[in-house]
Amino acid sequence: MRILIVQLARLGDIYQSWPTVRALKRQHPGCRITLLTRNTFEAATRGLSQLDKVIVLSTKDIMAPLVSDQADIVAAFGKLKEFVEGLKAENYDLILNFSFSPASSWLCRVLDPDARRTRGYTRTSDGYLAIPDDMSAYFYAQVGPGKPNRFHLAEIFGTLAGVDFEPSDWAGPEGLESFQMPRSGPYIAMHIGASENHKSLSPSKWASVINHFKKTSLLPVALVGGAGERAIAESIMGSVSGDQVMNFVGLATLTESFQVIAGAALLVGCDSAPMHMASLTGTRCLNLSLGRTNFWETGPRSKGSWILRGATEEDMASDRIASLMKLMLEKARAPVGIIQTQEGTPSYSGLFPKEVEFQWKFTQAIYQGTPFPEPVSEGFWQALDQLVEVNQFLIEQLEAIKGGVALESLADLMNRGEEVIGAISKIVPAWAPAIAWYQTEKLRIGPGDQATVLNRTIEIQGLMAKLLEVYQDMKAVHQEQTAEAT
Amino acid sequence: MAQDLEAYLETALRRLEIAQQEITKTHGVSEDSETLQLLIELVKEQVPNENTHRTTRQTR
After folding, report:
1. What confidence score (pLDDT) does residue A53 get?
2. Which of A194, A210, A421, A451 sits at a 20 to 30 Å CA gap from A481?
3. Per-residue pLDDT tens for A12-31?
4. What is the pLDDT of residues B7-58, one digit of tens each?
C-alpha cells in the first residue's frame, strides 16, 4: 500500500503527525509512506525512520516566475503542473490530508478527483469544500479556538488515518548524531518564542522568570529556538547573568534542539514546536498557554506536564511561573488551577466553568452517543423552542418541494430559517456544538440531482428533530420538577 | 523587499483569478482549471490578509 500524507502546516503539526506515521507503519508493515511537506519545515521529518520518502513542496520555486514586473503566470502554472504530475505518477492507494487548508483540499482534488482514496478535506466537482470522512467533518464543526473539542490534534490525525497509538509511537528521533551539551548535569530547557508573537511571553517577562527562578535554584537554563528568535534570546541574555544561562537559540539546529529538549529535566514554553518535540521525547513541560491557544488540541503530552492558562502575559506573574518550575522539579503536587496531563482522552484534567463542561459533554453526546447533558442555563430552553419551530418550518418547506412546489419560491424563506439557526448558535453558545454539527452535515451533501439533495436534507432535518426531542423531553421533566418544588 | 514580494504576489493573484475565471467560462471545469485554483490558493497563503498558512486551525 502506498500512502501519501499531506502535511503542509508548520513544524508543530509535523511533529504531532509522528505518532500516526509510526502507527501506520506498525499496522501496515509493508506500506510505503510518503510525507508531503513545505521546504521550510522539512527538517521536522528528520529522525522519523518510518517515513519512506519526503516530498517537498517548494512554493518559492513555483512562485518565482510571479515575482517580477512581468509576472509569468504560465511558467508558474507549468511548474506546479509538473509537480502535481509527479505526485500523480506515484499512484497512491491512500491520501491522508492532515492540513485542513484550502490549498491542500485543491491538491487532493487534483490527485484524486472522485475522492475514493482520500481522507481529509478535498473539493467537490463544483469547487465546494468536500468532507468525505466523519473525522474531518468533526474537525470542521468542532475543532479550533473557542470550539468545544477536547481531542488532541495528534489523536485527530490518528483517527483520520484509522490507527490506534501504542506508547512506542511517542518517541524521539532515531539515527541522529548525538549533540554534546557544553556542560554536564541537569538543566532546564526554555523555548522563548512561538510561531505567532501573541502566543509567547515578551523578552522582559522571560528574563524576569529566569531571574526569579535563579533565586531558588542552581539549575542552569538552556534557551532553545530558531534563527528568527535570536533577537528575543539576545534581549533576554542582556537582562540575566549569563553564567547559568546557555543560549542555543539560532545556533543549534532543529535536530540538535531536539536533543537539548530530550536531555532537559523540564521544558518551559508556550504553544510551539519544542513543546511537541518534548511530547515525543517524554520531557515534562510547563506549558504557558496564552490567549486563544487551545491547549486541548495542541498542548504537551508528556506524562506529568502542567499547563498554566492566561488570556495575556499579565495573567502570568514571573514569580508564579518560577515557583511552578521549582514545584515541578521537586515533583510536588500541582496547585489548584493548574491543568495537568492525564492518561487517555481527553489528555488533560482540571477545573473548568460549567458552561464549558456542558459544551464538551454535548459534543460527546452528538458524536460518541454518550448521554445528553443537563443544560446549565435558562437561555438554552428558550433557544430550544425557537430551534424546534424553525426546524419544523424547514421540514414543511422541504416536504412541499418534494410534493412539487418550486424550490425557487421557497428558497428565500428557507435561507431565513438557516440564518435564524446560525444566529441562535452565536446568541446561545451552549447550542453551538449541535448547530455546528447540523451545518456541517448540510455542507457535506455536495452536488447532486434535486431529489438526492432534497432527501438527504430532509434526513438531516429529521436527525436535528430527534436531537431536539431529547431536550424537549428533558424540558418537560425539568418543568415538572420546578412545579413540584414550588 | 518583503513589501515588493507581497506587491508582486498580489498583482499575480489578481491575474491568476481572472485567468481562472476565463478558463472556466470558456472550457468549463477541468484538471487544469483545478490546478490553477491550487496555484491561486498557494499564492493566497503568502499574501497578508488572505494568509491561510498560519496554523491548521485557521485554515479551515
Report:
1. 98
2. A421
3. 999 999 999 999 999 999 99
4. 899 999 999 999 999 988 888 889 999 999 999 999 998 886 444 443 333 3
CB contact under 8 A, B37 and A106: yes
Q: Which of B16, B52, B54 sits opposite A73 (nearest CB)?
A: B16
C-alpha–C-alpha distance, residues A136 and A100, integer Å: 8
Q: Would you call A62 and B42 a contact, using CB atoms and an 8 Å cutoff?
A: yes
Contact B8/A127, CB-based, under 8 Å?
A: no
The values of phi and psi at residue A193, to 5°, are -125, -170
A161: exposed, middle or buried (Cβ count in 10 Å: 0-12, 13-18, 19+):
buried
Q: What is the pLDDT of residue B2?
A: 64
Give the whole-angstrom CA distance, residue A49 versus residue A3: 15
Instruction: Tell whether B23 is within 8 A of chain A (Cβ).
Output: no
Close Cβ partners of A414 (under 8 Å, ≥ 6 residues apart): A394, A397, A398
What would the DSSP string read from start to end of A442-463?
HHTT-S--HHHHHHHHHHHHHH
Left, alpha or beta for A97 (phi > 0: left; psi -120 to 50: alpha)?
Answer: beta
B10 contacts in chain A (CB < 8 Å): none
Residue of A28, A29, A35, A79 whose CA lies nearest to A53: A35
The count of residues in chain B is: 60
A 10 A CB-CB count for B20 gives 18
ipTM exceeds 0.95 = no
- Exposed/middle/buried for residue A419 (C-beta within 10 Å: 0-12, 13-18, 19+): exposed
Match 463544483 to its residue by C-alpha cell: A126
pLDDT for res B56: 35
Q: Is the pTM of this model over 0.95?
A: no
Residue A188 DSSP code: E
Question: Taking the CA of residue A374 as centre, how many other CA atoms within 13 Å lie in the half-sphere pointing to its CB?
Answer: 6
A-interface mutation test, from B56, B58, B59, B60, most A Cβ less than 10 A away:
B56
